[in-house]
Amino acid sequence: MVTLHMGSRPAIFIADRSLAYIALIQKGAVFANRPPAPATSRVLGSNQHNISSSFYGPTWRLLRRNLTSEILHSSRIKAFGHARKWVLNILMNQFKLLSKSGDPVRVVDHFQYAMFCLLVFMCFGDKLEE
């Protein structure tokens, strides 16, 4: 077992199969936690109260349960099929409009906007204007 500090975070490498089993299966909760966020991220962000940065524990389990039962449940996915088509049309229209100019397109911004539109519709039932 080797720990290397790469940048600001340590990286743990386990070469033995039995040690990996102990670390990941038997003692998994010890390694499942996330490091504390820097002070600037806590002030500007959500103070580690979202599913991607929350500490392993009751808050993370509640967020995960809500995500899987409300957003990612198969009945909810089917129910919002029309919203996904609407968001896909927004995305495609933006790409068509930007492709005519011939300039490079930063796609990540448009995907983030599309996902934001979808989440706003799923949470609040409101369609955002383009």
TrEMBL record:
Reading the lineage from the top rank, the first entry is Eukaryota
Assigned GO CC terms: membrane
- Tell whether Transcription is among the UniProt keywords: no
Which parts form a coiled-coil structure per UniProt?
none
* MF terms in GO: heme binding; iron ion binding; oxidoreductase activity, acting on paired donors, with incorporation or reduction of molecular oxygen, NAD(P)H as one donor, and incorporation of one atom of oxygen
Against Pfam families, the record matches this protein to: p450 (PF00067)
Cell compartment(s), UniProt: Membrane
Principal subcellular localization: membrane
| Annotated SUPFAM superfamilies | Cytochrome P450
InterPro entries in UniProt? Cyt_P450, Cyt_P450_sf, Plant_metabolite_P450s
Co-factor requirement: heme
* Record's keyword annotation contains Lipoprotein: no
Membrane topology term: Single-pass membrane protein
Alphabetically sorted, this entry's keywords are: Membrane, Metal-binding, Transmembrane, Transmembrane helix
Its recorded name reads: Cytochrome P450 89A2 family protein
Q: Report the source organism.
A: Populus alba x Populus x berolinensis
